[in-house]
Amino acid sequence: MKTKTETKNKRKIETKTKKQETTEKLVKELYEKYPYPSRDFFSKERAKNYVKWVSKIFGKTVDFWKGKQILELGCGTGELAIGLSLSGANVTAIDFSKTSIKKAKQNAKNLGAKVNFLEKNILETNLNKKFDVVIALGSLHHTINAKKGFEIGVNHLKNEGTIIVGLYNKYSRARHRVKRIILRLIAGNNIEKRIEVGEKLFKGNKSKAWLADKYGQVHESYHSINEINQWFKEQKIKFIASNPKYKYPIIDEIKWLIFRKNAFFVMIGKNDAAHSPPN
Ligand SMILES: C[S@@+](CC[C@H](N)C(=O)[O-])C[C@H]1O[C@@H](n2cnc3c(N)ncnc32)[C@H](O)[C@@H]1O
Predict the structure, then answer these.
(1) Phi, psi angle pair for 234, to nearest 5°
(2) Which of 14, 28, 177, 191 could bridge 216 with an S-S bond, Cβ 3.0-4.6 Å?
(3) CB of 51 closer than 6 angstroms to any ligand 1 atom
(4) Atom of ligand 1 nearest to the CA of 100
(5) What is the pLDDT of residues 57-83, one digit of tens each?
(6) Ligand 1 in contact with 137 (CB < 6 A)?
(7) Mean pLDDT of all residues belonging to the chain
(8) Which residue's alpha carbon is nearest to atom 17 within ligand 1?
(9) Residue 117 β-bridge partners
(10) pLDDT by residue (tens digit) across 40-64?
(11) Ligand 1 atom closest to the CA of 122, numbered from 1
(12) Which tens digit of pLDDT belongs to each residue from 116-126?
């Protein structure tokens, strides 16, 4: 027979799961309606510039990607995936928003890129294939379990493969976190109302997709350098580079907040499992 505490705990877990389900549904709904980033002027040059920006973080050039097998998690409307394909990579890119994938496919067609776009939930992905590079920029923090998303990424990584994750920072996104509290108080989970209020109170004059991503978004998680280094350690990923660079975690992250930069940070590591002692 179950004790009262066990029953209470079980109910608690079930409630949480229901809450997570609702959250995931709302996030999906947002990106179905407002695929991100949906750039108006998307060109080969812009796609390649995106690739250059990512490459530079870990001291590579666009040539690095030639012939590589790449997996992108949460590709949105496909700009990076397309840029990587145009740089000679074989790219598989997934997103759970049907409209984003549709737009991504159209974008790829327009620019003559070949990408394997798949409509999938990151947290339920198992492709039975290993990749040279796994990339998740700006997507894991919108899943209900960013760490699990990262681990799924690592499961798809070859030995010596590279993983690139871009996440909202726990410290330097503090200003936006305050705005989100205000939005929640005024508009709750009503996406359209959140966008309207956000545009009025904070920053307007941006694309609808941008406003939706910033203010309509009901779920984002926040992460720190120390936390990601811990994720790396647990998965035997060796740190290679970050953007921005840092010397002292927390102090530097607070500096990013003060100097109003880098609410979003990128960490890059290499799969070192083959050289690590077993746990
Ligand atoms: C802010 S957009 C980033 C898009 C793209 N990576 C970029 O940097 O432009 C976040 C994307 O993650 C996707 N996403 C969020 N949670 C997801 C999940 N659980 N499974 C698959 N895609 C997800 C959303 O649909 C959305 O397209």
Answers:
(1) -60, -35
(2) 191
(3) no
(4) 27
(5) 999 999 999 999 999 999 999 999 999
(6) yes
(7) 93
(8) 143
(9) 93
(10) 778 999 999 999 999 999 999 999 9
(11) 20
(12) 999 999 999 99
Here the tokens at position 48 are 């390649």
> What pLDDT sits at residue 98?
98
Note the helical H segments in the chain.
Answer: 4-33, 44-57, 79-86, 98-111, 146-155, 174-187, 191-201, 208-211, 225-234, 251-258
78 Cβ below 6 A of ligand 1: no
**Cα–Cα dist 54/164, whole Å:** 9
Domain ranges in the chain are: 12-275
Q: Is the CB of 31 within 6 Å of ligand 1?
A: yes
Average pLDDT over residues 90-99: 98
Task: Report the alpha-carbon distance of residue 18 to residue 7 in Å, rounded.
Answer: 16
Distance of alpha carbon 152 from alpha carbon 156, whole angstroms: 7
Task: In whole angstroms, give the CA distance from residue 272 to residue 265.
Answer: 22
In the structure encoding, which two tokens stand for residue 106, read together? Answer: 């159209």
pLDDT tens profile 162-212 = 999 999 999 999 999 999 999 999 999 999 999 999 999 997 678 889 999
Cβ(132) – ligand 1 distance below 6 Å: no
The answer, yes or no, to whether any atom of ligand 1 lies below 6 A from the CB of 122, is: yes
Q: pTM of this prediction?
A: 0.93
Give the DSSP per-residue string, 82-141. HHHHHTT-EEEEEES-HHHHHHHHHHHHHHT--EEEEE--GGG---S--EEEEEEES-GG
State the fold for domain 12-275.
Rossmann fold (3.40.50)
Q: What is the dihedral of CA 104, 37, 263, 166, to 10 degrees?
A: 0
- Report CA(76)–ligand 1 centroid distance (Å): 5
